[in-house]
Amino acid sequence: MLQTLIPTKTGIATRYPIIIILVILTATCINALILNKLITANSSDFQVIVQQKQKEYLTHKTEWILHDIKKSLPGIAPFHALRNSQMFTIEKPVGLYIFSRTSDDNYYRLSEIVKANPELAATFKKGSALSEERSGEIIRRGLTEISVDTEIRSKNGHAWQNVFFPLPGEKKNHVVMMQSPAYNALVILRKFEESSRSMKIRVLIITSISMVVVIFLVLLFTHNITMFVEKLSGSMRKAAEGDLSVTLNPHADRDFSKLATSFNTLIEELRSREKDIEELNQKDYLSDIFKMAVSKLKASYMEDAITLFNAVIILKPDSFGSFFNLGVAYARIREYEKSEAMFNRASEINPEHQLTMSYIEKVKAIREKNEPRA
User: Is the pTM for the entire model greater than 0.70?
Assistant: First the structure.
């Protein structure tokens, strides 16, 4: 019986931890991807917010410049009014250029250089033309309203944004391109970008460490299962071969303590049964079986009593007590024909037993009473 309990494969025991690790790793990767996507989305949203705030600031700044120019006109030429704006004493532009629209509406020619920085690639020479394709609709809108380019440009330590606005005066086709400093906005965006990149790296490191730890723990758990199953298999094999001295340590592994305790309990029961069998071999087992049968008869467990009395008869065919009690048992379950047969056999063994004869008469009377009349 024990041999059938010995496991031959550990595939089932190791399959579930592998499934668990795959589920955990998949969930960890999905969470990392979702978090990375959220960080990227937040970076884009933050960049839009900074650009919007910068656009509002540049628009307000340009409105101040236009207000200064309008106050200076018509007493001062637009060029000088632009140069003398009070805003430039607070925050000096990187570059300041005045363009006029050419006969070809797609080009704007540089007519005046108010301020230029030769280190920047965006610096133009007077008389050079600026294509509308380069600045898109931004420069065109600058002829009639304030137009801010949200792109932050940087070169040689300079950071700026281009702002286009109309220059009031006699000629209505002038547009000013102001390269406004954007150091603070660029620094903020770069710091946030570095923070986002650092957070992504931390998420990647934490995810990688979590995956390694989970893999290690599952492999360790699988190894413990394999070791325990091998030990259990060997112990059960020895027990099946008759060696009941084997035991498992229930304190070696808390996860398998119940299983180890159950195995030890099973071994103890086998030892106890083996001891009972040895004691039974040393006793008068027929007497014990007969006493057990009598107790079953008194307790009205008729089927058990009949079985035990028949067992005694097989081992001791001249057992008067067994036949007599079988007669009583069959009478109680109303099998009167069998009951009469058992009493007759008991009478043959002990003809002088008066109680047996009286029981035979009673059983015959009951049978005759219950048999249908012709």
Answer: no
**Domain carrying residue 316:** 283-370
Query: How much is the average pLDDT of 129-137?
Result: 62
Residues paired with residue 180 on neighbouring β-strands, in sequence order: 161
Return the number of other C-beta atoms located less than 10 Å from residue 16's C-beta: 13
CATH number of the structural domain spanning residue 55: 3.30.450
Rounded to an integer, the average pLDDT of 84-93 is 78
Q: Domains in the chain: how many in total?
A: 3
> Which whole-number Å values give the CA distances from 291 to 82, 287, 321, 328, 349, in the listed order?
128, 6, 11, 15, 20
Query: What is the rounded distance in angstroms from the CA atom of residue 121 to the CA atom of residue 68?
Result: 29
pLDDT for position 105:
63
Rg of the chain over all Cα atoms, to the nearest angstrom: 53
* Burial annotation 208-231 (CB, 10 A radius, 16+ → b, else e): eeebeeeeeebeebbeebeebbeb
pLDDT digits (tens, 9 = 90+) for 207-216: 888 778 877 8
